[in-house]
Amino acid sequence: MTDSHDSAQGGGPKHGRHSSDSSLGAWAAVRHWSAIGAIAGLCFFGLLAVMYDEFYREFGITSADVALSYSDTLAHSWGFVITVAVALTIGVSLILWAWQQIIKRKHGRDCRIGQLPAPAYLTALAAIFAIFICAGLVGEHFMEAAGRRGAAGQPVSGLRLGLVFFDVRAQPVTEISSVAESPVTIPTRGLTFLGKSGRSFVLYCTADDQILRISMERFTLRTSPHHGLKESESRDCGTAATRSPPG
Fold first, then answer.
1. Integer CA distances (angstroms), 8 to 4, 14, 20, 22, 168, in order
2. What is the pLDDT of residue 141?
3. pLDDT given for residue 32 in this prediction
4. What is the DSSP string of 137-192?
């Protein structure tokens, strides 16, 4: 009876230790994956920020001038993020699997991922950099070409292939009207809508390569996502705006 009672008492602390160890392990896993997610988010943001700046550079501004934040940049390119993330997962998985097969043929034993030699991880790291660089070059090429079209007065609506890869816009303005009691229509010749910043519409004048800002509280505007500016419409811009010199 005594042995049985002591045995029962001894089982309690062991169960408590197992529970504590499981909690610590789960917390460590959460911290581990949170750190990986934060690093991945920063990498994607840095890559996308360079691409978006490449687009807006054609208009003499940066993505900050149209109020693109960290979360906006990632959300406006979630298709790009998912595609690159899948490519990274497949690429790294294939490389590590190939190293496992090499070790199995060479030593005649299975090898877990955590037991692979350092060159295996260096190879996977090189693949990650290569995928990021290739994705960046493709995205930068698209953004530069899109920016040039927009600066020439052609409509740009980003890249969507079922998923939103790049959500940029450069849409010719067809109408600007005041919201006063006596509405006034303002000439829109040569103006292209780029986005919003604070309480202002950000416009680009194709005639003199200037950025104009129009108050959203005083004016409303309409754009044409399908028709570009005609050559005769690009010779002069509306005057009811605050001009900003190119950055």
1. 6, 11, 19, 22, 68
2. 93
3. 54
4. HHHHHHHHHHHHHHHTT--B--EESSSEEE---BEEEEEEEE-SSS--EE--TTEE
Alpha carbons within 13 A on the beta-carbon side of 200: 16
Helices (H) and strands (E) in the chain, counts: 4, 9
- What is the distance between the alpha carbons of residues 221 and 209, in angstroms, rounded to a whole number? 20
Cα dihedral: 39, 196, 227, 147 (round 10): -40
Contact 48, 85 (CB under 8 A): no
pLDDT of residue 94: 92
Supply 160's token pair. 């969507």
> What stretches in the chain show pLDDT beneath 50?
1-2, 4-5, 7-9, 24, 29, 229-235, 239-247
Residue whose token pair is 């149209």: 66
**Structure tokens, 102:** 């090499």
Residue pLDDT, tens place only, 169-191: 888 888 888 877 666 666 667 88
Instruction: Look up residue 173 and give its two tokens.
Output: 């303005």
What span, in angstroms and rounded, lies between the C-alpha atoms of 136 and 51? Answer: 7
Using an 8 Å Cβ cutoff, are 58 and 147 in contact?
Answer: yes
